[in-house]
Specification:
Layout (H helix, E strand, L loop, with lengths): L1 H14 L14 H30 L4 H34 L12 H18 L1
C-alpha cells in the first residue's frame, strides 16, 4: 500500500511542476491570525525595549529610567495582547466553529419520545 502511494506521488510529481503537500493543521481564522500577528509585534517591541533598558542601565545613561518605565508599560500591553489572541480564538469558536448537531448516541428530546409513545399506543387502543 505504501509503495502504491509512493508510485502515485512520483507519477504526479513527474507531470506537475508544483505538488501540493497536505498540511496537518488548518489555517487560523482571520481575526485570530490578526490578533496573533499583533501580539508577536508587540511582544518583540517589548523585548527590544527591555534589552535597551538593560544596556542603558549598564552604561549609566539618563535614558535608563524612561526606557525602563516604557518597558514595564509595554509588558502589560504585551500580556494583554497575548490574552487577546486567546479570547479572540474562543469567541470565534463560539460564533463560527461549533456545529450543533446531536450525535448518533444522543437521546431524542422528551417531546419526541412522548409523541412516539403515543403513536405506538394509539393503534393498540383502536384495534381493540
Amino acid at each position: 500500500m505504501g509503495s502504491d502511494r509512493t508510485m502515485e506521488h512520483e507519477a504526479r510529481s513527474a507531470r506537475q511542476l508544483w505538488v501540493e503537500e497536505e498540511r496537518g493543521r488548518r489555517r487560523m481564522p482571520d481575526p485570530v491570525r490578526d490578533a496573533a500577528v499583533r501580539a508577536v509585534l508587540i511582544t518583540s517591541v517589548t523585548l527590544i525595549q527591555a534589552v535597551v533598558a538593560f544596556f542603558c542601565s549598564l552604561a549609566g545613561s539618563w535614558l535608563a529610567f524612561p526606557v525602563t518605565l516604557s518597558a514595564v508599560a509595554s509588558t502589560v500591553v504585551a500580556t494583554w495582547s497575548v490574552l487577546d489572541v486567546w479570547i479572540t480564538r474562543q469567541v470565534w469558536r463560539q460564533r463560527n466553529g461549533v456545529v450543533s448537531e446531536p450525535s448518533s448516541t444522543a437521546r431524542p428530546p422528551l417531546r419526541a419520545r412522548r409523541d412516539e409513545g403515543r403513536m405506538e399506543a394509539a393503534p393498540l387502543s383502536e384495534a381493540a
